[in-house]
Design brief:
Helix content is 82%, strand content 0%. It has a domain at 25-121. Helix 1 (7-65) runs parallel beside helix 3 and helix 3 runs antiparallel to helix 4 (106-119). It is mainly α. It has nine helices and no strands.
Length: 213
C-alpha cells in the first residue's frame, strides 16, 4: 500500500483486499478452529478410552485373583476387541497367558501371547510376548517354531534371553555345538555380575562335558 495515499484511498484498498481475500481468511480461521477443537476432542476421547481400559483391566486382575477364569476371559476379550490400542489390553493378555500356563493350557496361553506379539504398540511388549511364546512352544517340543520366532527378533534388551533359549532348544535337539555357541552369545550379551551369569556358565560347562563324553 502506498504510504502517501489518502485515508480514503487506504480504506478503499483495505476493502478491496478484504473482498479479494476475505473468504480465504475466514476459511483459514474456520479450519484452524476446527483443528484445535478436533485435537481437543481426540485427546479427551483418548483419555476417556484409557480410563475405561484401566477400569476393565482392574476387573481382570480381581477376577484372576479370585479364580474367576471364565469372567476374566470375557473381560480380557473386551479389552482386546474394544481397547486393542491400549497398554492395558496388553497387560491383561499377558496375565491371561500366565494364568493359562498355570492351568496347563499351553495352547490358550500361546494364543494370548501371539495377540500381544502382533498387536502391541511398544516393541518391548512385542518382544516380551515373542520370548514367552517361544518358551511355550519349546515346552511343547515345537522346536522349529520356537527357533523361527527367535530368528525373527531384533531386540537388544532381550537378546541374551533369546540366545539362552536358543541354546536350550539346540541342546534338546542334540546339537551340542550349536547350544554351546548360543550360550556363549548369551553370556557375552550380559552385563558382568548379572544373576543369570552363573546359570549360563553352568549350562556351558554341562554342554562342554557332554560334548567331551
Amino acid at each position: 500500500m502506498d504510504i502517501y495515499a489518502s485515508d480514503e484511498e487506504k480504506a478503499e484498498a483495505i476493502k478491496q483486499w478484504w473482498r479479494d481475500n476475505g473468504r480465504s481468511v475466514v476459511a483459514g480461521i474456520i479450519l484452524g478452529l476446527a483443528a484445535i477443537f478436533g485435537f481437543r476432542y481426540w485427546m479427551n476421547y483418548q483419555q476417556v478410552q484409557t480410563q475405561q481400559a484401566a477400569v476393565i483391566y482392574q476387573q481382570t486382575s480381581i477376577q484372576l485373583s479370585q479364580a474367576q477364569a471364565a469372567d476374566a476371559e470375557r473381560t480380557v476379550e473386551t479389552l482386546m476387541n474394544e481397547y486393542s490400542s491400549s497398554v492395558y489390553a496388553v497387560f491383561a493378555a499377558l496375565e491371561m497367558a500366565e494364568s493359562k500356563l498355570a492351568e496347563g493350557d499351553a495352547d490358550a496361553a500361546a494364543d494370548y501371547l501371539s495377540w500381544v506379539k502382533d498387536e502391541a504398540k511398544l516393541q518391548s511388549h512385542r518382544e516380551l510376548a515373542r520370548l514367552r511364546l517361544a518358551r511355550v512352544l519349546f515346552s511343547q517340543d515345537k522346536f522349529d517354531e520356537a527357533l523361527s520366532l527367535i530368528a525373527e527378533t531384533d531386540s537388544q534388551a532381550f537378546s541374551s534371553l533369546f540366545a539362552e533359549l536358543e541354546g536350550d532348544i539346540k541342546l534338546a535337539q542334540g546339537d551340542a555345538a550349536a547350544a554351546q555357541a548360543a550360550y556363549q552369545q548369551a553370556l557375552a550379551q550380559l552385563v558382568p555380575g548379572e544373576p543369570r551369569q552363573s546359570l549360563i556358565e553352568i549350562k556351558l560347562d554341562d554342554v562342554a562335558k557332554a560334548d567331551e563324553s
